[in-house]
Amino acid sequence: MTEKTITARPTFSEVLLGWKLINEEKLDIALKEQSSGGQGLRPLGEVLVSLGFISELDMLNALSYSLGVKHLTFSEFPKVVPEDNYPTVKFMRQYKVVPLGSEGNRMRFAMANPLDEYALNALSVFTSKELEIYISSEKDIMEAIEQYFGNTVQMTTIMEDMRGEEGESAGVEFEEDVHHLRDMALEAPIVKLVNMLLTRAVEGRASDIHVEPFESNIKVRYRIDGALNEIESLPKRLQSAVISRIKIMSKMNIAERRLPQDGRIKLRVSGKDIDIRVSTIPTIFGESVVMRILDKGSTLVELEPLGFPEETLREYSSLITMPYGMILVTGPTGSGKTTTLYASLSKINSADKKIITIEDPIEYQIEGINQIQVKPKIGLTFANGLRHIVRQDPDVIMVGEIRDTETAEISIHSALTGHLVFSTLHTNDAPGAVTRLIDMGIESFLVSSSLIGVLAQRLVRVICPNCKEPFTPKQDLLEKIGKNISGFTVYHGGGCENCRYTGYKGRTGIFELMAMTEEIRGLILEKTSADVIRQKALSGGMQALRDCGWQKVRDGVTTVEEVLRATQE
To answer: N or C: which end of the chain has fewer CB within 10 A?
Structure first.
């Protein structure tokens, strides 16, 4: 219904009386109340609701009928509105109006009071298109304004505050003045800006925040589901203040801008205790900051939801209940190794077992497990800490990462002397872990005797369930993966607001488990190459990473592109 057609209908009062929502007496009371304010007439519907004579829903439905405009609730609003020439957010909030997008030569707006001629005239100034007006409650309109423009509003407000308080050149002219930097970093607008960036990252499921200075601006990117997404571009003039604020929060030296620094921020966001590891490094345009978000209060995941194939899960669950030996989890950085180890420890954690971990950093806190944080500055390294752990009479030991020969030797000796040892290595596949240990100088007979299993893993993104649709992959991708798609349907995500138009939401694991057999132990003793060990493991029933990924393609969990990306060598 357009603005021009809001005529020739029964009056609002007539509808209310005709629908028997009120009687003449209540109408008279409302009309007297309406005119007694002394500051102009309040809308009659608003007066009736405030007096308790009718519900807001009845009022909106009656007004909708009277004006000949459709009543929309928030659930009927679009999820997102495209960019266009809209009124300011201040105007929307003042006159309780929100745009709902446009179609052809019409632009749609929801209003709490479609009789407001000033607001209607102002809207016609903002667009040359014909107005299509709907009626909605004030609450629904305010909620829509926040959903559509909330982040923009916050950012714009903060920027205006900073411009008013600091001037356009803030953070540039006084770059060498440490006292000025500290003052700027503690001012309310900068504090709000940094807090907003951190809060939005946590709420958006980001694992990392990248604050990167360039010649004319500062880019802020979030890593979500393993992929970087650019979120904001901040003015260059805010660089020193923003970086200094982050450094103050993480207890770094704000005067030191020539050397890399590390720090840590602890805060509470949306009821969660969040630990943020902060790293700065000098670049040509200033200090670049990366913040790794660790959810300290996160409920520890179990093994089952990680994505293990049924047979692999059964075999791995059997390995982690062995009384002694070493289990290695391998893969590149960000492949979910630590999560798998924590889930493994959680599964075997019981009152009759003493479990001690040495980690850098401690990413989850597990009830009933003794966890040690590595502190190289005071001599508490993996190797040094591990020496003392074995004197604590543990049943299970978890070493965050085998980084050097000394740590590898102590871990293996611990496994040989009656402890179950978990650790991680950076190798491409499961057999590669064996040759890596031997290359580090560990004797082959020690590797053969101590190792009971190696789990290689990767993370692949999961197709967004909201926009999942059948899809035919390109032939060259199928040739690369060496598979065909006859007999089943392949899917991908078309892209929607739910997944930030990436087609993916969340991640799952693909796995390759090599359990030790007598044949493989013999090959290790002979210092056979990883390729030969791999062929023996495959012939013995090991499922390769790529095959595990392909099964998830067949199951409609992920895409061919994701499996290729995760398993390319």
So the answer is: C
Give how far the C-alpha of residue 382 lies from the chain's centroid of Cα atoms, to the nearest Å. 30
Whether the model clears a pTM of 0.85, i.e. scores above it, the answer is: no
Length reported for the chain: 569
Beta strands in 270-406 (DSSP E): 272-283, 286-295, 325-330, 355-359, 370-373, 396-399
CA dist list (Å): 294 to 276, 402, 508 = 6, 21, 18
The answer to whether 254 touches 185, Cβ cutoff 8 Å, is: yes
Q: Which amino acid is at 373?
A: Q
pLDDT of residue 317 exceeding 90, the answer is yes
The band of 569, judged by pLDDT with boundaries at 50, 70 and 90, is low
Strand locations in 129-205, DSSP E? 130-135
**Residue 286 falls in which region: left (phi positive, over 0), alpha (psi -120 to 50) or beta:** left
- pLDDT band at residue 177 using 50, 70 and 90 as cut-offs: low
Which 3 state secondary structure label does DSSP give 137? coil
The pLDDT of residue 174 is above 60: no
What is the end-to-end Cα distance of the chain in Å, rounded? 60
SS3 460: strand
**The pairing of beta strand 106-111 with beta strand 97-103:** antiparallel
Q: What percent of the chain has pLDDT over 70?
A: 90
Half-sphere exposure of 202 (CA within 13 A, CB side): 22
How far is CA 43 from each of CA 22, 115, 116, 450, 468, rounded to the nearest angstrom?
16, 9, 10, 81, 46
**What b/e string do you get for 223-233 counting C-beta neighbours within 10 Å, with b at 16 or more?**
bbbbeeeebbe
- Residue 347: exposure state from Cβ atoms within 10 A (0-12, 13-18, ≥19): middle
- Rounded to an integer, the average pLDDT of 47-66 is 88
